[in-house]
Design brief:
Helix content: over 70%
Largest sheet: none
Number of strands: 0
Strand content: under 5%
Structural class: mainly alpha
Radius of gyration: 21 Å
Order of helices and strands: HHHHHHHHHHHH
Number of domains: 1
């Protein structure tokens, strides 16, 4: 009589795996957020205070000292619209040491490596819950009436988050293999600030650099956010959709590459 082989273990469905990964990302996000403000007297209020303190300083420097203008937009609202996008990307890039900082967890736990940078990016993006409504309020206080074009804001922010998360995964993965990258990123973020029309108008760029207004995704997202919230008209959809597609592609490729080299992170930790 032929012996029957044991039944194979049940396979975990894709849906169940996705739900478990999603729960892990949310759990890690909450853990990072709590740890960041645990010993602070003002706790999570710093998530509100910090972005507005930065905007106030830049508004004084560029708006008062250097007499910059927002054109048809009051300068405070103009600057805030730019800083919202830039801070999300720059703060995600600053998480580039997340794999080396969490080496002990990675070495002793089996989970998708992209959970770490994605959760950190999501934690940084929680700032949007405060800053975006505040942009509408500040604009209203400066005489800007909100319009139905606000419906485009979630699509713009989705593109920003995809860009920020994808960039975070890329620099975090490379930093494991090239430790000096963390110092290069800090210089790169500063260069990115001045290469984007955050404190100045896009038309102020030299003629030979005007192409940056369309090639730089941060510039495109900033202009789209200002268009919809502060100017009351739809963004330039062809350019915006192209940059959104590139951002999503960056995020997908970054995750795929991390999956292919994730096993090496433990060896190099």
């Amino acid at each position: 009589m032929q012996a029957t082989s044991p039944a194979p273990p049940p396979r975990r469905t894709t849906r169940a795996t996705g739900m478990r990964t999603g729960a892990l990302i949310l759990s890690w996000t909450r853990r990072d957020f709590d740890a960041r403000y645990r010993r602070s007297a003002l706790a999570a209020l710093w998530a509100v205070i910090q972005p507005f303190a930065v905007v106030a300083v830049y508004a004084f420097i560029f708006g008062v000292i250097f007499d910059q203008s927002g054109g048809d937009i009051p300068y405070l609202s103009y600057l805030l619209g730019g800083m919202i996008v830039f801070r999300i990307v720059s703060n995600c890039l600053s998480q580039n040491t997340c794999f080396t900082d969490n080496y002990d967890v990675i070495a002793h736990s089996a989970f998708p490596r992209y959970v770490i940078p994605l959760s950190l990016s999501l934690g940084v993006a929680l700032e949007l819950v405060v800053t975006v409504p505040s942009l509408v309020v500040v604009g209203a206080l400066q005489g800007i009436t909100p319009t139905y074009t606000l419906l485009a804001v979630p699509f713009i922010l989705a593109g920003v988050l995809a860009l920020a998360a994808g960039a975070c995964i890329v620099v975090s993965t490379v930093q494991v293999f090239v430790r000096d990258l963390q110092f290069v990123v800090s210089f790169g973020v500063t260069a990115l600030f001045f290469a984007s029309p955050i404190s100045y108008q896009p038309e102020q760029l030299p003629e030979g650099l005007q192409w940056l207004n369309s090639a730089n995704p941060i510039s495109v997202y900033i202009q789209a956010l200002r268009d919809t919230v502060l100017l009351g008209h739809w963004p330039s959809w062809p350019i915006l959709l192209l940059q959104m597609a590139c951002s999503v592609a960056l995020l997908g490729l970054a995750i795929a590459h991390l999956q292919s080299v994730g096993h090496r992170i433990v060896d190099l930790g």
